[in-house]
User: Fold this.
Amino acid sequence: MSEPTDIRDVPHTEPAYAIETRALTRRFGKKTVVDHLTLRVPRGSIFAFLGRNGAGKTTTIRLLLDLLDRTSGAASLLGLDCVTGAREIRRRTGYVAQDEGLYDWMTVERMIWFCRGFYPTWDDALAADLRRQLDLPGSQRIRALSRGKQAQLALLLAMAFHPELLILDEPTAGLDVVVRREFLEGVIELAQEEGRTIFFSSHLVHEVERVADWVGIMEEGRLLSCAPLEEVKAGVRRIVCTFPASPPPPALPGLLHTEVEGKTLLCTVRDFGEATLAAARALHPATLAVEDLSLEDIFVALVGKGAV
Assistant:
């Protein structure tokens, strides 16, 4: 029997995935921005959706939230089709856009009051607690807030109604290093108190490694890798071989990148395992070592030089 092409055809009791897509595609004229994306985001995970600027991350998020029509494919959030279930999805999902459209002439208190009317599950006590934690001045107009404080206000508005899923699109763009770190760590701490799923896009790879437990890497609309963070890091390694003379051309499975430094050969490989080691030993190096890589190194190896 052929696999269903529409996620609505797949029986869902208690969905294991907060987000699920199958061959999701969006074209603008002849340009394919999201290219047959098949993605699964486990419930309760902190999922980092990584890619360079222009990789298709924001377009994917807009497709998921039915803010943009898909060209083909299927997608669901919380077990609901993204199109037919869009209203229910918005009721259960918090969303913070990169350039959040806040009414900057309102005060913080007025903005909170305005938004509470849209959500039956709005929690006044939680909103007040978040405002205290984030140190948001209630009487100040939004236009007078720093970029960081505006981002924190957007987070409050996205969380005060107890969403099951929190989607953040480049939430730290434009923030300085200290504020970015505080913001991300604050998001994780606040959201995990209720076991929410967090899906956030970013091109700042070095910051993601501290907070994410799942990682998806996107390039030119295609998903290059999607796995738990530790699995991604275990699967991409650097093999360092030294030779008595010039290194031979490497023929290693899963080879991503090669560098030669004198008599030393450095090979970055994916799907690292015993077959990789056997192929490296077959080069007859004088010494052989395997090095772990940071997520940033892995990202660069997968998407190419100049990625970050």
